[in-house]
Records
---
Amino acid sequence: MEQTGILDQVKQVVSDTFGVSVGSLTAETTANDVEGWDSVAHLIFINGIESAFGVRLPMQQALDVSNLGDMAKLVQDVRQA
C-alpha cells in the first residue's frame, strides 16, 4: 500500500477515535488540531493504528510523531521492515 492509501487509513482511525470528519484531516494535522487529543488519547490512537494495520509500532517513535503524515510514514516504514 502506498503512503497515500496509508494516510487515508490513518485519517480514518483519527476520525473513528476522535469523532471528527475525515475531510477535515490532512497530512499536516497535529494532535493540537483535534479536540480531545491529549497524551492518553494518543496511546488510544496508537493502539488503533496498530490494530488497523496489523503492525507493532516502535513506541518512542509513535509517541514522537508530529502529524498524520509522519504517522503514515512510520507505518509504511514498519510494514517494509
---
Amino acid sequence: MSKQLIKQAFQEVLDQGDKAFVPYIMAGDGGLDSLEEKVQFLQESGATIVELGVPFSDPVADGPTIQEAGIRALKQGVSLRAILEKLGQFKENRSIPIVLMTYLNPIYAYGVAAFARACRTAGVSGLIIPDLPLEEENLVVKELQANDIALIRLASLTSPPDRLKELARRTEGFLYAVTVTGTTGTRATFQESLQEHLASLKNICQAPVLAGFGVSTPGHVKELSANCDGVVVGSKIVDALHQNNREEIKTLIAAASSKEQAPAE
C-alpha cells in the first residue's frame, strides 16, 4: 500500500483542482522528539506529502540552509536507523505519506535489503536518492520493489531529451523536476525557459510532475504550478521551522490551493 498512498494523496488534491505541496524537513533538526509534532502540523496545514531529509556529512545537492539543518541534526546524534525507528513509533498516528530523501552512502552502510524492510516497517512510502544515477539503480530497485517503496527520480534542466524520457518512464510516485542548475536554496527568479521545460515534462510523464529547488514564496508556488502538478519547498520550510515562523508555512501551503485565500488580518 505504500506506493498507493502517494497516488491517493495526489489524486485527492488534483481532483479538486488544487496543486500538490510537498514540504521538505530535515529529520532531527531540533531533535527527533519533535518529528511527530512537525509532521502532524504539516499534515493539518494541508501538505500533500512530507519529504523527510536524512542528515548526511557530504550533502552534495543541498544548499547552505539544509546543510546547516543537517549539521544541527548530526550534532544531536541523529542517524538513519534512529529516524526509521522514530517514524515507526507514530506511523499509526499519521495519514500523510512520508518520502525519505537520503544519499546512497547511508543506505549502503545500513544494508540495502535491511534498509528497504525498515522503510516498510516505518511506514515510508517513497524514496529520493539524489546521487543515484539511472545506470546504478540496480543497487536498490529490486529491494525497494519487494517492499513497495516508490523510487522517485529527479529530472534536471541539463538532461538531454532521451534521458528525460527515460526518467519520466521509470519514476514512481512523482517526477521531481529540478528547477535550477545548482544546489537547493531560495531564489528570487527562475530562468525563462523553465515553464516550457515543466510543460514538456508533463507531456512525457504519466506520473505527477513537481517542481523543486529554489521555491520560496507564494508567488513561486503559483507560478511554477501553472505548468506542472505542484511544488516541493525545502529551504524556506526548514528556515521557518527553525525560526518557529509557522504562519509563513501555512501561507505557502495555501498558495497551492485553487481557492482564493482570505487576506491575513
---
Amino acid sequence: MSEKIVYTTAAVNTGARAGESHSPDHSYELNIDVPKEMGGKGDGTNPEQLFAMGYSACYHAALDHYKKEENIDNDSQVTLTVHLHKDPTDGGFKLSVEIEVGMKDLPEEKVKDLADKAHTFCPYSKATKGNINVTVKAVPYVEGK
C-alpha cells in the first residue's frame, strides 16, 4: 500500500547560490545570494535561511498539534538556527540545527516535553533524523520576539 500524497510543490532555481528561485507559476520569486561570511555580496536570501524558515514553521505546526491535544493555549515561539559546517570527509559542507522553544507561563520541563514530542512529529525532523545533528531545547519565552 502506498502512502497518500496530500500536497505537492516545486521550486525552480537558476544561478545556484548567486541566482534566483521561483515557484513554477512565478507566484513566489526571490533572489538567492552567497552570504557575506562566505565571500558573497549577501544581496539575497540563501538556502540555509530558507531551510530555517520552512523547518521552523513546520516544527511550530507540530508543536501546536501537541498544544491543542493537551488543551494548552499559551503563546509559543520557535527559533530554529541552521549552521553550515565544513565537512572534513569530502571538503564540502554539512548542516546542523538548533531548535529553541519558548512558551509563555509554562514550566521549562513541560515546554521540553512538548518540544520533544513535536520533534518526533514534524516532517522536517523526520526527514533530517539520522542525517544531521539536531538539538532541541526549552528556553525562556521572550515577549515580542
---
Amino acid sequence: MDDDIDARYEVPRTAEFIRGRAYTRVALQFPDEMLRDAAAVARALRRELGGGDGGGVKLFVMADTAYNSCCVDEVGASHIDAQCVVHYGHACMSPTSNLPSFFVFGRTPLDTNVCGCSLLECSRESDKRILVLYGLEYAHALDDLKAVVAELYKSHSCGEVQYADVLCSVMSPSSAAEREQGQSNGSTHSNDLSIQSDGVATFVNNCCNVEGSTRKYSLGGLTWSTSIDDNMEDYLLYWIGQDNSAFVNIVLTFNKCDIVRYDTVANQPSRDVSHLMKILRRRYYLVEKAKDANIIGILVGTLGVAGYLHIIEQMKDLIKAAGKKSYTLVMGRPNSAKLANFPECEVFVYVSCAQTALLDSKDFLAPVITPFEAVLAFSRGREWTGEYLLDFKDLITTDKPEISSTTEEARFSFIKGGYVEDNCLEENEKQSETSLALAEVTEKALSIKNQNNDAVLYQGRAKSAIDYLKARSYRGLTGEYEGPAPDSVLTGRTGRAAGYNSEKTETTQ
C-alpha cells in the first residue's frame, strides 16, 4: 500500500522539492476524489522527509477549496501561512499570484497499445499532420505511447505525429514587474512565459508566442511548437482523456480544427464534438443578451490567478465606457441562490481560470458570461472573427477604453440611425438633448413595466443600487426591516477556526 501511494502521488519527488527549497510550512491541496488518500499521503511524505516529525516540516491538508479545485488555493494556504502549495490531481495550471506551487497530476491508467493503434488509424484516414494533446493525468504514459507508435510506424507508412509536452511541474509566481511588462505591450502575440534554469515557469501573457521561425503555444499546462508558416487548422488534434473542462478549453479555443477524442474508459476514439459546438452557439446568444444590459455584476471567481485584479479593473473601465454600471461581487463559488440576491444585475461577468469560466446559467435569473464575451458585448464595433478565448490573460491590456464625451469622435445618432461625426458645439448640444429625451422615454417605459410586476423589487422605479436597496423588505440587521423584529442578535466567535479569540484567552488564564 505504501509503495502504491509513493508511486501514484510521487512522494519522493515531492519530498526532494520541499527539501531543496527548505520549506517548513507546506499546504497539501487535494480535490474531493483524492481526499480519501490525503492522510496516507501526508504520512508517507512525513516519513520521506525525515521520520515522525517530518524533518521539521509542518504539513497541512487542504480540502473544499475556496473557488475551484483545479486552481491553486492561495486563499486557503494563506490561513496557515504556508510557504508553498503541493497541488494534487487535475490542474488548470493557471499562474499563481503569491505562492510557489508543485504539481502532482496523478497516474490515470492508459492502454498505450490500443491508443497507439487508434492513433495510427487516424493518421491513415487523415491527410493532416496529427498533434497529440492529453489530460495531464496521462502524462506519465507519454513515453510508452511514443514507443508503441514508433514501433507501429515501422511497418506502416503514415503521416507525421507531433506530441505536446507538459509545461512544468513547478510554478513560481511572476513578479509584479514581469507582469506589468507583459501587460504593457497589449499584443496577442507577446511572450507567454519563460522557463528558468530550474524548470520554473514564469507567466507573463497570452498563449501564443512567436519566436523567430516558430510559433509556440501554451494551453492548459501543455506546450507545443509549430512552424510560423503553419496554422493550427493544418493539424488534426488528437485528445487523450475525458470530455472534461480541459477538453472543452481545447475545442473552443481551436474550434476550426478537426478533433478526435480518445476515450480512455471505453478505449475507442470519438469524433463527435457537436455538443460543444452547441455550447459555442449559446455563448454568442448570451453575448447578444448582454448588449442590452444596463447593470452588470463582475463576479470574482479567483483570488489567486495572476492578473485577476488587472482584468477586473479592465472590465470596470470597459463597462463604464459603454455607459453602463458595474458592481464587483466576491462570493466564492457562484450558484443561482447567491446570484438571486442581486436581481438588479442583468448580466454577470465571471472572472476565473480558463477551465471554469463557462458557467451553465440556464437556471440563473441572469446570464453569466466570460471576460472575452464581455469585450464582444460592450466594445463598440467589435465583431466575432471566429476566435474564442477562455483565458483572461489573453485580454489584458493597459489601454483604457475611451469614455463617451463631447470630443470630436464618431458616435451613434438615434435620429439618423447610425454613427456620425461631432464637428461643432451645436451638434453636440443637439445630441445631448436627444440623449436626455431618450433617457426620459426609457425611464418612463421601465416605470410602466415595473408597475405591472408584483415582486418586492419593483416597488416604484429603481435606477441605482440604493433604490434597489430601499425597495427590499429586508436590508440586514443594521437597516430597516418590514416585519417582526428578531428577538435577539447573537454575536458569533471572532478569530480563526484554529484558535478563536475566546479559546486563546481561556488558555492563557
